[in-house]
Amino acid sequence: MTATVLGREQHAARRWHPATEIIVLACSLLLVFGVPSPVVPIAVIGATFIAAAVSPAVNLRAWAIGVGVLCLPTLIVLGVVQGLFYPGTEVSVLWQYGPARLTVEGLAIAVQIWLRVSALVSLSAVFGLGADSARLFDGLRTLRLPSTVAYICASAIGLIPLIRSRTAAIIEARASRGWNVRSWAVRIRLLPGIVTGLFTSVLIEVEQRHDVLAQRGLHESRQTTSLQDHTDGRGQRLLRRGAPVLTCILIVCSVIGFLPLPTADQLIGGA
């Protein structure tokens, strides 16, 4: 028991303050979608991979599976729609077979969109797998958001384990009644009933939590006392103030042409 507590304290000591994580997440997303160059999302994806590998709270295998499941189908769709059937007329054709043609312009759009989506998914996966409702609530309250807004955002993460456990319970209940839940065809047939039950139970759970916190004075509370102990310091406070400023400067420099980063067209055309 003592070793477990010490291990959790060591993990908490090596992690950033949740407010710092939120600021870094927001600034990274702004850079990904604000700078029109594939270099930025590639750098963000690489940074998130390193963060998932070294973070004591994130399972690298779970992160990789989640990112792969969400991003690989997107890559296929974008490659077919944009890469092979780009509707432009003045294009540079790399390969053509019948109505399908691989163009530099279509491939560049597909690569840029996919890299941005992958960066978004990678960042969200690292943050979602490494955060819990208490950490998110503390981070949002540190950033001076109202208690009600912080509670709503934190509840979204807090309900994920609840949905997972309720889904497993519903499937086990169907299996005990003779349903072959290992079959995907059976699961698809059961999906409407499962979704309806989950939606109802989640609404009831949210309402009960809201009533309890309202009775305890959540709406009137203005204190910023943390629910957990977090590592913070002057360096992190400077990072929380400087990262948004630096992000805005980089985006403005990119818009006016002072940031010499290659576009997807230039990278693919040069290759």
Automatic annotation (TrEMBL):
Q: Does the keyword Membrane apply?
A: yes
Q: How does it sit in the membrane?
A: Multi-pass membrane protein
Task: List the keywords (alphabetical).
Answer: Cell membrane, Membrane, Transmembrane, Transmembrane helix
- Membrane spanning stretches: 22-50, 62-86, 106-131, 143-164, 243-261
Give the location in the cell. Membrane
- Look up keyword Iron and say if it applies: no
Report what the protein is called. Answer: Energy-coupling factor transporter transmembrane component T
> What species was this sequence derived from?
Brevibacterium picturae
Q: What is the lineage of its organism?
A: Bacteria, Bacillati, Actinomycetota, Actinomycetes, Micrococcales
